[in-house]
Give the backbone structure.
Amino acid sequence: MVAIENRTIEEIRQENAALQTQVAELSAVNKMALMLGTSLEFDEFLDEFIVTIHDTVQCDRVLVMIQDDQETVLQYGSSNFRLTAEAQSMLEGLRLGTFQPESGSIIDRWINNESIKWNANDATEHSSFQWLANYLGSSEYYSAPLQVDGLLIGALIIDNQPSGQPVTDEQEHWIKLLSSSSAMALQNARLHHKTVRELADSMREMYILRQIDRELSDTININHVFEMTLDWALRFTNAQSTSLALYDQEANRLHFLYEYGYDIAQAQMELIREEYGSGITARVANSGYAEVVPDVSIDPDFVRLATNTRSQMAIPVMREDRVVAVITLDSKKLNGFTDAHQDFVQKLATRAGVAIDNARLYEEAIREREKLSHILNNTADMIMVIGMDERIMLINQAALNAMQLYTNQDYTKRLANEVFEHTALWVTFQKAKENGEAINEEVIMPNERIFHANLRRLDEIGWIVVMHDITPFKEMDRLKGELIATVSHDLKQPLSVMNGYIELMIMQQSVTQQGLNAVQMIRKAMQNMRQLIDDLLDLAKIESGIKLDLHNIQVEQIIQDCMELVKPVAQNKAITVMNGITDKLPPITADRSRMRQILINLIGNGVKYTPNEGWVKVSAEVKGNMLKISIQDNGMGISPEDQIHVFERFYRVRRPETDNIEGTGLGLAIVKSLVEAHDGQISLESKLGEGTTFYLLLPIAKNAA
Ligand code: ADP
């Protein structure tokens, strides 16, 4: 009671007023806290914030400046200003860097947690505050920084426009109070909003990139790649227009392939580019560095193609350090492109680069394949590739013709047996598969032409079959054979007449001794000639396809007989003829008299081409289903150059050692033809001066155990 009595009514009223103010302040802060607790979008949040401040402070206009995502500038947050569209957009473009501000400037004051009260008539205040008033269209404003832990995160600006009333001390008081109590909440809301947005952005980015990767790997159409790239770039960055230009570095020329969202006709854009160049796009093409231009109006290189472009981003598409294209995006917002946008388009550009490469490589591969297929189809040789799985990988036109297949059908991927089991090549193919090596063989194809077939196995590919049409050579050969046979036959008759007369002259002793010598010489020459004619006729007969009298025969006896036959000649030269056969040999399927002819020839040659006191040895062994007979001598040998020719008709080695040895050069040709007629093979090994070995491979009789 005493206390009350001691206080005056005035004091109590003042106390009441102070209490009321406190309650009002508390309720304002409470209201703010309540509002901040609701999960609003940040933009809505800012608008609510402005309304609350406006209602509490009772001022006309409120503006909030707020930190950007990078936290390096204060930018327009929200306001309840009613400005002209132009003034509003200027205000929205307001950006104040917070790094090392000029001393005494607005930002400097805010950083130092000082408020600013500016009045057009108060010359004592810093003149650099004037420009903000101009922006706002204020004659007087009050501003308080928003700080969290001593760091500037934004600012509140109020004025009493359009009434023009000065900002009262009470209004200042409220603003100070509210700015300090709401800064933290505002900061949290911004960070929360930023995190949510970043998360959503990166989810969206990941989703889009996954989709892009999928679609890009599906397409090899370069135009589609470009279209998709631009579409995604537009969607992700919310840009309004975009272009893609291919860049020719040598000519330093940009070729604009795609342009979306421009409000100027294409022809007009071309005219503008011709006159003013390609602006920032050209700059990026030259430098190879991506650029984001937050405000195109202050970039001297900018060339306007859309009326409301305010910021631009240009990203180069690189291939191996070269710019191959530039993607340009335009936004109607100032500073419309964030780091995330740049990052994303950069990723797109990388993908587009790879896709461009893939598409180019694919096109090149197709071109090469077409070229190759053109060459293959226009060669006269039959070419075929059969995979390890016995499916046709490649078959050319000549092969289709030779096999009498449909030339307009695709036989690739078909099983080999479906394609050519009906041809003689199938047998050769089976043989090649069996022995796993290269095979060279003559085959007659269904089109009745004779081919020289070469089948070769290539690891990891399969079988390469190349066949050359030798029908004309075969025909020539046949004609030649026929000619020789006819001529030889016709020569034989006069030779018999001449022989008869010579024998008569010798018998009648009608010539002198000297003449007799000459007659003997003529007789010898005629014998050689007869031998030659006989050999020629024999060869012609064999090559035209002789009929062999095949039986299962034991070869040891024939070898022994042949050795006996040559022994007299061998003895003359003191040459030892040895039989190296110790084991019992399996029978072979052969013509007995032809076998004899083969062996006499080879053993005879051994004796003939081995100097006095040498040796000739015959041996044999079983090799799989073949019998291998070797006829070896330690004679003069055959040089590698001659080895490849000795089986040819009339080929005789010309060396000093062979000068006095008579022969026709037909022996080995006959032997080879006979061996092949027996389905056998002949080969030789020889070293000049050391000796020669001929090998015969002959099929063992089928029913021999
Ligand atoms: P020719 O009637 O000349 O003996 P061939 O066809 O039998 O004809 O042989 C061709 C050539 O091969 C011979 O001229 C000879 O030079 C060479 N030749 C054949 N067999 C032997 C051998 N055992 N040693 C060395 N040279 C040989």
Summary: The chain has 20 helices and 23 strands.
